[in-house]
Specification:
alpha+beta, Ubiquitin-like (UB roll), 4-stranded antiparallel β-sheet
Length: 545
């Protein structure tokens, strides 16, 4: 053999021998490790070479305790978001981390494993720390704290529109994408370094749920509202058509999915309108007049549709397929004014009174007496207003009103409730001398001699109305009384202001006469105010201005 050949053989044989030796040593070392972690392996900076599964368990358990309190930092172009591991559902996956540690150096090509083993003699191999996160919690975090100017996605929903259940598609938003942030955290946590830092860019945020998800809820809603629902409370009953039922249903996103939602507020509003006659109205604490004394009287609770449980009963009835009548419990309605509050209003003595006369025996007198009865005991609280029409409502035969004469656009006619303007004029004058404000009033279009000229008010329903504001710091009790030929309205309170007529002027307004009546109000603290009330009279019936 030549020298050149011998040298070449040596050059080939030596590296080959080294490689064979490396493989042999690696094989011996690996085989010797058995079910232990291979030599020179670290987990989160801790040496774990030679540990068995049982030996790894306490070390991994100890490592796992760091993650609930660990900081996760999401860096963005607009600023950082810091959160605790617990708030993101971050936890170390114990079993897979142990499995991965035992697998270090045992995976990959058999041709490369010896070389990575050799490299570990100089630089330890790292076992990965494997963690999991809760994307739902990340979604919640980013919804509340997104420095990139987040526009929230709109989830698909259902709605009752024109008697039908329809699906409303969702719309994507923009900001940090929860799924992308959730996917970035586990890789960033593999080295065991804390805090865990991930970088994120804003992007399009898709809705969490699909139109198909909403359609499932819509089908449920359609099935529940296929038929009308019969309800009753007290002595009142009604049938709720499917078109109304569907307006009570919607959907809302939850961590578990889109769920059917019931709009109890809308249902209560609709039930209240459908069952408006149910129960009885509460009576506020008020007053009665006994001779010269004003006595405070306790109120009493009432009932109305419906108790809070009514919504649940309706839902149960819908989900059970309806059938029969749903009995809804009445709720107790407490008076708005308690006895103690009434006593604190300072209603103690007469502060103003006015009387007008009429011919006894006329049908209109029935109406004057009836509206007096309906308003007797009304209290105008400090700063509040009293509307005769709001308090009494339409004048009907069912309420005890009869036919009577009234002026309609300058023409004398008859209608149910005619004559109540005499009550309005009497109350108007009591308020005039009691120093109260007039929010709304209108004089008759024809002057009637039984009323003070230029100082009177007409009344019809819904307009014109008489609305009085109590500008005193005390309650104002309205107490009408009547005889066969007169009505008197007395106001009871604590003296605060008095009014008197201090002037009156007339001017022409076309064919009509404009009357301005000046009032001077004097207050107990010495203040004096001057204002005016107005009337416009036609010269005769049927003549316009």
């Amino acid at each position: 053999m030549s020298t050149r050949t011998r040298v070449l053989s040596i050059v080939v044989a030596v590296p080959l021998a080294l490689v064979v030796g490396l493989f042999a040593v690696w094989a011996i070392d690996t085989k010797g490790a058995g079910n232990e972690v291979l030599r020179n392996v670290e987990l989160a900076g801790r040496p774990i070479g030679g540990l068995t599964r049982a030996g790894l368990a306490p070390l991994v358990d100890d490592l796992a305790q760091r993650y609930p309190t660990a900081t996760v930092r999401v860096t963005t172009p607009a600023g950082d978001v810091d959160a605790s591991g617990e708030s993101l559902g971050l936890s170390l996956d114990r079993d897979t981390t142990i499995d991965a540690a035992l697998d270090v150096g045992r995976r990959g090509s058999v041709l490369t494993q010896p070389f990575t083993w050799l490299a570990s003699l100089a630089s330890p191999r790292q076992a990965p720390v494997l963690v999991t996160v809760d994307e739902t919690r990340i979604r919640t975090l980013l919804a509340e704290n997104d420095p990139t100017g987040r526009e929230a996605p709109v989830e698909p929903s259902i709605s009752g529109v024109e008697g039908q259940i329809v699906v409303v598609p969702g719309q994507p938003g923009r900001g940090l994408v929860p799924a992308e942030v959730a996917a970035a955290i586990p890789p960033a946590a593999r080295d065991g370094e804390l805090p865990i830092v991930v970088a994120a860019e804003p992007g399009e945020i898709p809705p969490q749920y699909s139109v198909a998800d909403a359609e499932v809820v819509a089908e449920e809603a359609r099935a529940l509202t296929a038929d009308a629902l019969s309800v009753s409370t007290g002595s009142t009953s009604a049938e709720i058509p499917p078109e109304t039922l569907r307006t009570w249903l919607g959907s809302s996103p939850t961590p578990e999915g889109l769920v059917l939602e019931f709009d109890e507020d809308q249902a209560f509003t609709d039930l209240g309108e459908l069952l408006v006659g149910a129960g009885k109205r509460p009576v506020d604490a008020g007053f009665r007049v006994e001779g010269d004394r004003v006595v405070a009287v306790a109120g009493s609770p009432g009932t109305a549709c419906c108790e809070d449980a009514a919504g649940e009963l309706v839902i149960e009835a819908l989900r059970s397929g309806g059938g029969g009548t749903v009995e809804l419990p009445l709720k107790v309605v407490q008076p708005k004014r308690t006895l103690a509050e009434a006593e604190a209003l300072g209603v103690r003595q007469p502060v103003a009174s006015f009387t007008t006369n009429y011919q006894a025996g006329q049908s209109r007198v029935t109406n004057i007496h009836r509206i007096a009865d309906l308003t007797r005991g009304a209290v105008i609280e400090p700063g509040e207003t009293f509307s005769v029409n709001d308090h009494v409502g339409p004048r009907t035969r069912a309420k005890g009103f009869a036919l009577g004469g009234f002026i309609n656009n300058g023409v004398l006619e008859e209608a149910v409730g005619g004559g109540v303007s005499q009550y309005a004029t009497t109350l108007f004058n009591a308020a005039f001398f009691g120093g109260l404000d007039f929010e709304e009033y209108q004089a008759h279009s024809l002057y009637i001699s039984r009323y003070p000229y230029g100082r009177e008010a007409t009344l019809s329903y819904p307009k014109p109305d008489l609305v009085i504001r109590n500008t005193t710091p005390y309650g104002m009790l309205i107490w009408p009384t009547y005889t066969a030929s007169s009505i008197t309205v007395t106001l009871y309170s604590t003296p605060f202001a008095t009014g008197e007529q201090t002037g009156q002027t007339r001017s022409q307004a076309g064919n009509c006469t404009r009357v301005t009546t000046e009032r001077t109000r004097r207050y107990v603290d010495g203040r004096v105010k001057v204002d005016s009330v107005f009337a416009t009279y036609r010269p005769s019936e049927g003549v316009n201005c």
